[in-house]
Amino acid sequence: MDAAGPSSKRVIMYRAWERRLEDVRIRDADVNKLVMNYLVTEGYAEAAEKFQIESGTEPDIDLATVFERRAVLRAVESFYLKETIEKLNRLDPMILVMNRQIDFRLQHQRMIEMIRAGEMEMALLYAVDEILPGIQNNVILFSISSCLFCLALENYVFLIDFLKEFIRTTTLFPLLGPSQRLKLVSQVNAAILTSQNHEKEPKLPILLKMLICIQNELDENAAFPLVCDLMTTELPDTACPYHLSF
User: Fold this and answer.
1) pTM for the whole thing?
2) What span, in angstroms and rounded, lies between the C-alpha atoms of 33 and 60?
3) Residue 56: its pLDDT value, please?
4) Are 202 and 48 in contact (CB under 8 A)?
5) Phi/psi of residue 212, nearest 5 degrees
6) Which of 20, 107, 190, 214 suits 177 as a labelling partner, its CA being 20 to 30 A distant?
7) Helix (H) or strand (E) holding 152
8) What 8-state DSSP symbol labels residue 224?
9) Which SS3 state, helix, strand or coil, does residue 78 take?
10) Residue 11 parent element (H or E)
11) What is the pLDDT of residue 143?
C-alpha cells in the first residue's frame, strides 16, 4: 500500500513496488535482440555467431562485417598498429580519410609502443618521418618538433636520456598504460561502425542511462525502492520500506 512519508512524498512500499514489477512482461525475443545488439556493436563476432545459433536471433548487421571489424580491433589490442592501418584501409579506405584524428592517434600509439619497448631512437625517427608530416599545419608544434630534431642531431645521446626522464616524470607516463590502448580500440570501433551506418553505442548502456534519469526524476516526487546496484539490479532489503539515496 502507498503511504505518506515524512518528507510529504508519496511512499511506495517495497511489496507494492515488487508486485508492480512482476506485472511487467518482457518478451524473451526483446531481451535476445538487446543481447545480440550488444555483441555485434562491441565486436564480439564469435559470441554473436554462437548466440544466433542458440537463440535464433538474427543480428541487425551482417556478421561477416563484425568478424572483419573484430580482426581490426585485435590488431589494435596486440600492438600491431601498422597492421591495423592496413586492415582499416582494406575495410574502407575512407575511414582514416574522414577520421584524421583516429589516423593521428594510431600513428601516435605506434610511437608510444616503441617507447614502451625502449626503442627511443626508432620512436624519434618515426615521429619525424611519419607523424610530423601530418601536423605541418600546426606551425608552432612543427617548429618545436623541428628544433627538437636539430637538437637530436647535435646531441643524440643526451636527447634520448632526456626523453626517458621526461616521459617517466610527466603526464605522458599514463599514455604507456593499457587504458590508453583500450580507449583507442573503442575509438577505432566507433569509427568503423559509423562508416557502416551502425550505432556507435550498444542499446543496453543507453537503457541503463535512461533508468538512472527516470529514477532521479521519480525520486523527486516519490519514495520507492531504487535500483542501487546496476550490476545486479537488486532492490533494497525488505526491512527498509523505501530508499531515498542513489
Assistant:
1) 0.67
2) 9
3) 95
4) no
5) -60, -45
6) 190
7) helix 139-154
8) B
9) coil
10) strand 10-12
11) 43
